[in-house]
Amino acid sequence: KAGVTQTPRYLIKTRGQQVTLSCSPISGHRSVSWYQQTPGQGLQFLFEYFSETQRNKGNFPGRFSGRQFSNSRSEMNVSTLELGDSALYLCASSGDRLETQYFGPGTRLLVL
Amino acid sequence: GEDVEQSLFLSVREGDSSVINCTYTDSSSTYLYWYKQEPGAGLQLLTYIFSNMDMKQDQRLTVLLNKKDKHLSLRIADTQTGDSAIYFCAETPGGSYIPTFGRGTSLIVHP
């Protein structure tokens, strides 16, 4: 089974721009979660989607949004980028055993 | 304070055992996890333990849980240079499958 894939792997944007990141979960997995990882804040939960519905949400501003498609692929969008949005964005998927999450390699975003 | 705490660094000699410790605050935690992150990579789930268990062993990995003290440890036997990575402890509070992560412990294995 292929693992979780994320595209693009690296991205450079400037302040004020917006960005869309993509995540393809493991085949058959319906839950997709997004995390932000920074040296200062560590790993922080953004949101979780299950069967196209946002089921859980972390404490991030409304500039961070996401969606999930019928094939379980998910995208997250960050609008009006700030320097502090520079981070590694990780996606994780879960199957029937929701207690086990499998992570993708991440998208490293640099905001200049 | 943080919900999950870990020491930042651990240095061991190749062949020795490594013990990485973690404390958490949520007494309703249901699952406790250990993840490994290598440079430039995502997180790899190493093992996890249900809160009603005291110990779990998986090849070179042993997880010990002291629920009374809210203390979790990961022991890696016969540590190899390939074990050098950041190890994250995480817990899920009761009723949720969304883990809360510690800051990670950097394990450095030297010859």
Short synopsis of the structure:
The complex is a heterodimer of chains A (112) and B (111). Chain A is mostly beta strands.
Can you characterise this structure?
The complex is a heterodimer of chains A (112) and B (111). In chain A, the strands form two sheets. In chain A, strands 2, 4, 5, 6, 9, 10 and 11 form a seven-stranded mixed beta sheet that branches. Chain A is mainly β and 112 residues long. The N and C termini of chain A lie far apart (37 Å). Chain A has strands at residues 5-7, 10-13, 19-24, 31-38, 42-50, 53-57, 64-68, 74-78, 87-94, 102-103, 107-111. Chain B has 111 residues and is mainly beta. Chain B has strands spanning 4-6, 9-13, 18-24, 31-37, 43-50, 55-58, 61-66, 71-76, 85-92, 100-101, 105-110. In chain B, strands 2, 4, 5, 9, 10 and 11 form a six-stranded mixed beta sheet that branches. Chain B has a five-stranded antiparallel beta sheet with strand order 1-3-8-7-6, with no helix packed on it. Chain B is globular. At the A-B interface, strand 5, strand 9 and strand 10 of A face strand 5 and strand 10 of B.
- Largest β-sheet summary of chain B: 6 strands, mixed
Q: How much of the residues of chain B is beta strand, in percent?
A: over 45%
The radius of gyration computed from the alpha-carbon positions of chain B, rounded to a whole number of angstroms, is 13 Å
- The shape of chain B is globular
Distance between the termini of chain B: 36 Å
> If helices are DSSP runs of H or I spanning 4 or more residues, what is the number of helices of chain B?
0
Low-confidence stretches of chain B: none
**DSSP E strands of chain A, number:** 11
Task: Work out the radius of gyration of chain A.
Answer: 13 Å
Average pLDDT rating of chain A: 94
User: What oligomeric state do the depicted chains represent?
Assistant: heterodimer
Helix content of chain A: under 10%
Number of E strands of chain B: 11
The largest β sheet of chain A comes out as:
7 strands, mixed
Spans of chain A with pLDDT under 50 lasting ≥5 residues? none
Q: Give the overall shape of chain A, derived from the CA principal axes.
A: globular
User: Which class best fits the helix and strand makeup of chain B?
Assistant: mainly beta
